[in-house]
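Students often ask why inverse folding is considered easier than folding. One informal answer: many sequences map to the same fold, so there is more than one right answer. In these notes we will look at a single instance of the problem. The structure comes first.
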């Protein structure tokens, strides 16, 4: 079944603009990249040539190191059993990271043919982890577009919730008007279901067909095991897939401590959790691998609460969150899901809701930052309309001492806005705007929309 995904609009825009660039949809494995692209090309092109570089070795052999158009035309005829035709035509290059020669050929194909080119790749395959490739990618001829697993709005689309309800959330994000209790309680329940299910398409499909969270978690557990099978996977100097055994070992070490790392009072990722005496330098490559693969995302500590945030990040101090909340729950198991459904989680529930907030920020393409200087602790920091905004996340009520002190001017630090994200309805407090958990994705969408509008300027008039 094809589900509505936000990246589809990016493909539509790319085609409408007629950009003479390929578009590369990158993201974690099995999040629906291939399905999305196949749906798009089948609706929008007469001639479709699809290559699968991960599953079909013959497809990789078509793109040799001495690639030329005459041979390519012959190979297309043999491969697809039809005459070469590049009119109203597209090359769909699936898992292009597994075929560096195909990436290198993009520039040539765009210059010498009429093909549109759409490529997909896992972050691992795209980035390659090899500095010795024989051929370089087609720099300047590719537009990159990151795809994530289902966000909460896409999840709501999948379960076919009325669009009127989604519009009410978006309106309340702007006005802080509480939703009616019926819809508020409905969305709270659906959001909890989303936390357990996550955004992997197969897990979402399992949820829709069975509404059995044991089956959903089994689906996500299987996905985690498949991903573990990719650990240590790199490209060698010839661009061939191989396994780096040292990277494999260290990646499994880090993976084994991700859950306990998220549940400790010291927010910074501590390598001593892996083993006594472990140092960050030993695991830099491993952390980068997991991050680029898409299984985890980094949240950097800030040295100060000032804009631009990137200028104050401490690259040596960070947290690691799962890139998909459903995979995080699956890693913890059925018991945690049962506690979450029964509202019986104690303080650990706070870590889960912090994890879903990180998931939401990441899927909204916001850089992740927190603040902890030993005296003040703030969950997340973002830029909102050129102002510094705090996002405090609580499972239900909870206290936000640091945020309150900063917003009331009782601290050496300053922030302009505080969003307090809880299970309560929309509200305006003495120092904060209250936002329900389920509305955080829509709040971030509103903030991003304001940012993009602010970057559109009037042409400068030059008088002679």
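Output (designed amino acids):
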């Amino acid at each position: 079944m094809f589900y509505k995904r936000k990246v589809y609009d990016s493909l539509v825009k790319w085609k409408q603009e007629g950009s003479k660039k390929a578009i590369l949809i990158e993201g974690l494995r099995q999040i629906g990249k291939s399905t999305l692209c196949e749906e798009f090309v089948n609706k929008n092109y007469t001639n479709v040539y699809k290559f699968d570089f991960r599953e079909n070795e013959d497809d990789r052999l078509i793109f040799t190191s001495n690639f030329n158009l005459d041979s390519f035309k012959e190979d297309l005829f043999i491969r697809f059993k039809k005459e070469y035709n590049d009119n109203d035509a597209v090359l769909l290059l699936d898992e292009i990271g597994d075929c560096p020669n195909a990436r290198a050929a993009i520039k040539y194909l765009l210059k010498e043919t009429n093909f549109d080119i759409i490529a997909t790749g896992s972050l691992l395959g795209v980035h390659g982890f090899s500095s010795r490739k024989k051929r370089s990618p087609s720099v300047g001829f590719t537009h990159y577009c990151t795809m994530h697993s289902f966000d909460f709005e896409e999840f709501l689309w999948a379960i076919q919730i009325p669009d009127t309800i989604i519009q009410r959330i978006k309106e309340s994000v702007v006005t802080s008007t509480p939703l009616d209790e019926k819809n508020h309680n409905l969305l709270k329940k659906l959001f909890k279901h989303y936390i357990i299910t996550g955004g992997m398409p197969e897990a979402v499909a399992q949820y829709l067909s069975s509404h059995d969270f044991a089956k959903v978690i089994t689906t996500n557990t299987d996905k985690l095991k498949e991903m573990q099978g990719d650990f240590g996977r790199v490209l060698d100097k010839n661009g061939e897939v191989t396994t780096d055994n040292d990277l494999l070992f260290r990646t499994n070490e880090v993976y084994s401590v991700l859950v306990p790392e998220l549940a400790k009072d010291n927010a910074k990722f501590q390598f001593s959790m892996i083993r006594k005496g472990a140092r960050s330098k030993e695991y830099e490559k491993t952390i980068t691998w997991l991050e680029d693969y898409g299984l985890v995302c980094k949240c950097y500590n800030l040295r100060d609460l000032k804009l631009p945030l990137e200028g104050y990040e401490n690259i040596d101090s960070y947290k690691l969150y799962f890139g998909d909340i459903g995979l995080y729950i699956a890693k913890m198991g059925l018991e945690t899901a049962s506690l979450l459904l029964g509202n019986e989680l104690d303080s650990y529930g706070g870590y889960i809701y912090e994890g879903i907030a990180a998931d939401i920020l990441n899927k909204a393409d916001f850089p992740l930052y927190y603040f902890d200087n030993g005296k003040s602790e703030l969950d997340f920091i973002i830029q909102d309309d050129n102002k510094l905004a705090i996002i405090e996340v609580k499972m239900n009520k909870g206290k936000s001492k640091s945020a309150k002190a900063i917003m009331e001017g009782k601290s050496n630090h300053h922030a302009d806005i505080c969003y307090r994200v809880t299970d309560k309805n929309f509200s305006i407090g003495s120092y904060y705007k209250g936002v329900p958990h389920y509305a955080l994705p829509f709040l971030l969408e509103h903030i991003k929309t304001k940012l993009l509008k602010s970057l559109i300027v009037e042409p400068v008039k030059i008088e002679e």
